[in-house]
Amino acid sequence: MPRASLNTLLPGLGLLPLLGAACAPKTADHSIRLGEFDALTGDTATFGQTTHEGIELAVEQINASGGVKGRPLKLFTEDDEGKPDQAALVAEKLITQDRVRVLIGEVASSDSLAVAPIAQRYGVPMISPSSTNPKVTQQGDYIFRVCFIDSFQGQVAAKFARDTLKCRRAAVLRDERSDYSLGLADVFSRDFKALGGTIVADKAYMGGDVDFKAQLAAIRAAHPDVVYVPGYYGEVGLIARQARALGITVPLLGGDGWESEELFKIGGAALEGCYFTNHCAPDSPDPVVRRFVATYEARWHHEPGALAMLGYDAVRVAADALKRAPNLDGNSIREALAATRDFPGVTGRISMDADRNAIKSAVILEIKGGRAVYKETVNP
Ligand code: PHE
Hints:
Blueprint: H1 3-9, H2 16-23, E1 32-38, H3 45-64, E2 73-79, H4 84-96, E3 102-104, H5 109-122, E4 126-128, E5 143-145, H6 150-164, E6 169-175, H7 179-194, E7 198-205, H8 213-221, E8 226-228, H9 233-245, E9 252-254, H10 261-267, E10 275-278, H11 287-300, H12 306-324, H13 330-338, E11 343-345, E12 348-350, E13 362-368, E14 371-378
Parallel strand pairs: 1-2, 1-3, 3-4, 4-5, 6-7, 6-8, 8-9, 9-10
Antiparallel strand pairs: 10-13, 11-12, 13-14
Helix pairs in contact: 3-12, 4-5, 6-7, 9-10, 12-13
């Protein structure tokens, strides 16, 4: 309806700005809004920065090929600094002010856990690209993820330590501030013991700490033949250096939280011969991965990591659901997401199970020559 006729119909009611937005399909923004919340600054800044590149690339490609339902996607990005409180704040803003249809985020499980109840309350579907703690999707039926969960990741690490590295005595060093780290440490310990191993030390630190010598000295005294460190790259890099300085020579083993170029800058040579589990390997020979890496490098001029690939997949899974949804209300989108089967992602085929988790394989990476090199794939 043209503005002039509204003015004649509703003189002096002051409703024009509101109605103008709702009733002017020709000139109004008819894009479908996606909200991204990520740590673009702070202790885990590379998590958000690389995820963002994958997300943006996916949005650009989808829009270049005509968008969704003939409408372009419009991305709203918020920096949550990797802090749960901040994540809750910006997610609420994305929902209430920017009126996004789908939320994409977070990487760190503690941040996703802070946002999930909010997304659930507003009925806005949320897709975490990479939060692996099982509790994330248990927050409600609007919460999805395109990655595996830590009950699997921890089991893969325990099996690798026992069967491949032939370790009998493991020490654990966990980040008490991180739901991710605590969950993964528990699964690893349980499965390592179930496989006949012994946990000889279990120590803790707080994300943000810089001195780990007391914990490492206790670990050294317990004579482990592997140290499991399910933390994030900033602390892990320092832990590796301090462990070597204290004379701990056994391999450190970790999870996807090690994924960052910064890890190698911080940890340097101390990381040689260490291993971590991850979602995918950019150096994989898989033709799907090779094609994606080439496209990504053309766009961003550097190699993608697992996070970029998961961010990319999260947006494409969202777009696929938006296409299939009969309309764009939260419940329709939620149902379409839940029905995702065999979606061809760059991180593998994605099917949502009954708990809205993707069932996917994991890879083991070995640190060699200052980089993470693909070693093997483990299927669920
Ligand atoms: N899985 C981690 C978590 O849940 C986040 C992460 C994923 C970090 C992938 C790096 C790479 O907290």
